[in-house]
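dumping this here so i dont lose it again. seq + smiles for flavin mononucleotide
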Amino acid sequence: MTLRLSSAGESHGPALVAIVAGLPAGLVLDRDAIDADLKRRQEGYGRSPRQQIEQDRVEVLAGLRQGRTLGTPLALVVRNNDHRNWTWGMSPWPAEGEPSGKGTKPVTLPRPGHADLAGVLKYGHDDVRDALERASARHTAVHVAAGAVAKALLRELGIEVVGRPVEVGGETTAEGMRDATDAARADRDTLGGIVEVVADGVPPGLGSYAEKTDRLDARLAFALMGIQAVKGVEVGDGFELARRRGTEAHDEIYPGLERRTNRAGGIEAGVSNGEPIVVRAGMKPLPTLMRPLDSVDLESAEPAKALVERSDVQAVEALAVVAEAAVAFELARAALEKLGGDAMVDVFAARDAYLARIGRRWHPGR
Ligand SMILES: Cc1cc2nc3c(=O)[nH]c(=O)nc-3n(C[C@H](O)[C@H](O)[C@H](O)COP(=O)(O)O)c2cc1C
């Protein structure tokens, strides 16, 4: 059975939920480790005051007993504290009493670059909020929780996945990133950036070239491109490779099957090759602007400025955590496809047998 994730939840609804199915039994989970990742997602320079309202914590409703997975679907919940300000406007059932709090008036001013226009056209909504609530990146919280579960599994296999920001607004130093964020905030503007995720300890043989849907590079690109605001993905040296000659583009092979470069980012022909996996994702500037762009009022059909709503200046550090979770989940899925197993002991036995087989030729650690 393959590892699967499905989720539900609106940005200002009561809660975000995820079901992770296909986990082996006997995986030990640490609540603090999951909460630590949720906290990391909320931190970062340039985020909105929403992060002070939310203090994300994971709740587990099923699939776990005494901290160990049961091999049954794991149900994760992260509550939206901010819902208390939206109980009328985001009530799942017809709200009773006088309208109060936020979200009571329809939004009709679509923001260029957000889900607003495409969403109302596609689903036939009159209120842009009906589209933006789910399109919002708020629900990445529960994906980060699922990613933390995947990281626990990978850690048992000696695999560590870490994401970090490498560029904000074109700046690559920590100071430059902060200054650019301050300048954008002062101009009531937003920024994008680039994050990098590195997975160390991945054995050769995850993914396959048999079909394009099996390719690990394609799967990681899909996982990253599935995150809000991600508009470009690179594996290894990515686009830079396109500018080089072949003799300077590939990773030569030495005795012990050692590599001295990792331009391929740890994947050849859609299969992990034993080198660290390196992927990058480029994020566009956030579309909610305090200095709104031109739009059209959907009610009057007249020109108008787009919706202004509390928003981040940039969320690149948060993206690094979300991207780390997405990569971890996909790697865990690929690892379980390779190793199988209803219980962690089966996974370990398969891992040991596989490493013993390839160890005759492949000597990691050199
Ligand atoms: C972690 C994270 C935080 C985000 N925060 C905001 C935000 O505060 N304001 C905003 O307008 N967009 C934010 N976005 C981006 C929007 O969710 C995204 O641009 C929108 O859903 C449209 O999707 P698209 O950019 O993929 O086309 C964020 C994205 C991520 C990954």
